[in-house]
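Supplementary Text 2. Reproducibility record for the structural model of the 649-residue chain.

All settings were left at their defaults, and a single model was retained for analysis rather than an ensemble. We include the record here because the model underlies the residue-level annotations in Supplementary Table 4.
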Amino acid sequence: MIVRRILKYSFTRRFTFVLFLIFYLSETNFAYGNPQNIVPSDTVTANQDTTNLLFPFNDNTGNPYLDQQNQSPLFLKNPSNIKREIIYNPETNSYEFINKIGNFNYRPPATLDFEDYQKYEMNKNVKDYWNERSQTAGTSEGSRLIPKLYVGGEAFESIFGSNTIDIRPQGSAEVSFGILSNKRDDPTLDVRQRRNTNFDFNMNIQMNVTAKIGDKIEFKANYNTESSFNFENTLKLKYEGKEDEIIQLIEAGNVSLPLRSTLIRGSQSMFGVKTQLQFGKTTITAIYSQQQSETQSIMVQGGAQTSRFELSALDYEENKHFFLAHSFRDNYPKALATLPIVSSDVTITRVELWVTNTGPATEQNRNIIALTDLGEGNKKNIQSPYITPLPGGEIPSNLSNNELLRMDTAQLRDINTITQYMSGDPLNIGLNNYMVAGEDYVKLENARMLKESEYKINTRLGFISLNTTLNADQVLAVAVQYTVIGHDSVFQIGEFSDQGVTSPQALVLKLLKSNTLDTKVPLWDLMMKNVYPIGAYQVQREDFRFNILYSGNQEGVPTGYFSQGPSDKTGVPLIHLFGLDKLDYQMNPIPGGDGLFDFIDGAALTGGTFQSSNGRIYFTSLEPFGSYVRDSIFPNDPQWADFYAYDSL
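Retained model, structure tokens:
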């Protein structure tokens, strides 16, 4: 049982500008006294002919000085037809305030002496001043986080072109953090090991800064933590001189070199330093940078995109394509030798694939033990020297050798005692510690069964192609059922999850990939090394061209043939020597080929040379640039086989 608790807290800080409204409330609007009686009673006396407001407000008195102190944004402003006139009376040295609606005096005039009028004017001027400052702050200039800086002195202006420093930051920063706590109620674990607590921290920054020093120096920075590519984050410092100066331009950071010529193309997305100097009518542009992009030509013909690809012999897909047993691997070249017909007597009817669970998935999880030699009936393909093939073991099954017959399968069910059992004498031969973890077997807790949508299976040739590449430390194991023409039995390797072995008991499976890498053991051969991706999808046969070039000749120029070697091999197109050009366009055999790649689609499902849905080339040989060169192209010329073969692949 796994209990997953996530406590998520979020703290966000953004560069935004908020206008705060300051309410000037009159002292008369506040109630003082007993805190329990702040809200007045809403009851009405029976003899009262009017109803008092719960929160009454006082009308203006007509005295401008008192009314000025009593203003609040909570109340409406006076309408536009109400006007106030101020008349000075020299006889009394006072000021009269006349309030009118049109020509009608709707209030008695108010009189202020000279001292009160000075206070009134002072308060009014202070208020007008702050209102003006407030309105200035609301403009584009006043609302800036960093205002313009002005530096005095002629020296600064002569160097940078002006006396201003302008910095304009924009963007946002968001930080989220939390606590991730996992509790596992497993009685076999120590109490401290049952709970695992980690911090969950995430940060999202979107920032853009533009800074100018005078008129000549400009700095631009753009950074986004969620950008898809690194080149989207830019940093650039630019100095631009006047038209009569020698130094016209200096750029540092993300630079480019556009050229007007159509013969030589300029470069984009570079990081370095660029200068442009002017000597009279001569302009010199120099750049020292690191290329951060590559140029790819794309042609569109008839609505379809056409692009060029180039691969090395080293670029086969690792940890993605696997044979289900060595018997299927050995039959692979024979079955494809008669293309477009696949010569195979095998039909795979059912498969279950199990991998190391690296995520939070809790469904379709089982404990497993994967055996390397399970289903192997040929002695050269068996890892352990203490396991021997059984009669009829050439057809892969659980009884191809005596491994399971010698073991006590009941001891393999308990995931907690498997290691102790396998390190003892599981084959009952009188020895100990001859079964090595990672080589002869792998024990895996809570392995995840792959969904059918996560892989493709070739039911005729016995291999699987995963949609995603496995990590180096991930384990891959399989249970498979299949039929063979001429046999009435259904053959099986490993155990399926619905065949009576219930959880938490471990399933016994066939190991396809271990969590340790050793290229000298038979398990290494189960990973296919003849599938090459071209980086395209939905490829059409009519527009596809494929060739094999060799660049190790004396001239150093890639050629589509061997220029050195036996006479019957030199000058022959390599695409024919490697078995990918044996047919004409109508899929009929033709001696020497027609010079074009035999585009036979469906390689991942039924057999062929290409999988158009995801752009994969499948060679018809197991190790096309290694053992195939030695055994098939130069079988009688070991000297040239050593010269051309790339056995380390």
